[in-house]
What does this fold into?
Amino acid sequence: PWFLDWGRDTLIVSRGLVASGFITETKSILKQFAEFERQGTLPNVIYGADTKNRDTSDAPLWFAAACRDLVLQTGDHFFLDEKCGVRTIREVLISIINSYITGTPNGISMDPRTGLVFSPSHFTWMDTNFPAATPREGYPIEIQALWYHALEFMSQVDHPGHTDKWRDLARRVSNSVKDLFYLEEPGYLSDCLYASSGMSAMDAEADDALRPNQLFAITLAAITDQLLMENVIRNCASLIVPGGIRSLADRPVQRPTRIVYNGHILNDPFHPYRGFYSGDEDTQRKPAYHNGTVWSWVFPSFCEAWAMTFGKHSNDTALALLASSSEIMNYGSAGHLPEIMDGDYPHRQKGCDAQAWGVSEWLRVWNKLTAS
It folds into this structure.
């Protein structure tokens, strides 16, 4: 309750609202956030009328994803020409895309050599800071997937004469993801190509940590190579627990992740996994938050990616996996999903008792799998 309104969370939830038929409510949310857009940025968190915190590289792209879902679900292309303040939704989308290409005031920019998007430190959903547990400065994989998804959408809805350039750029992004993120030996996608501002993704250092963010490359269609998709699913399966997915695999890494607090290293940099979210906030819980802790909101994307990878005949398996959340829904805050659980058995529920994007993503994917 002390966080008030979050940008990315609200916009991710909007996709579940669309899938559940809450079209009027979703339009209101999207039009409100569209009014907040400035030079490609949206609020990360809103405190009353204060929208100055714009430390997010994913919220504007989730806005585009929610708009795309709404248009595809309803067939209402006229929504893109509805006014939000002095501009239309379409104009806001174009502003976001163009600003990412030329660079935003808060440091987001497109690498001209690869078409990939640079994200400043702590600008993704894995934003734990003080201490810096998951900085992910550079080119995070889900940002590239969202960027590809937004470009594909613009290639369909921008004014004639502009669509080809978006389609060409989207194809370039997809090729760059395949060429730069795929780690041949383990057979999965790097979670982040670490780089400083101004450094090309071609010169970045690939992270070998196995995380679930690569699933969005499948669900948002940034990768379509069958073998690559199957390898991603096979590796991410090791992150699954009933009703959730670990934020990091319990295995050694080659690229160290040092978590430093008051001059002291809090973890084993070459084995940063933490199985329990407990103890002191800064020295124990924060280091665990995105380094092994189970999350409910990403878990449905594994089930969605499974069905997309193995085809319609695999829907029953994907639904069975998704239904492993049933016990969690009936324990704790009934009918809801918790924010997080411990990565290690018995996977106790932790954090927020009823997490909006956890249950909305579950419902979105359930609707998708049962409708197809």
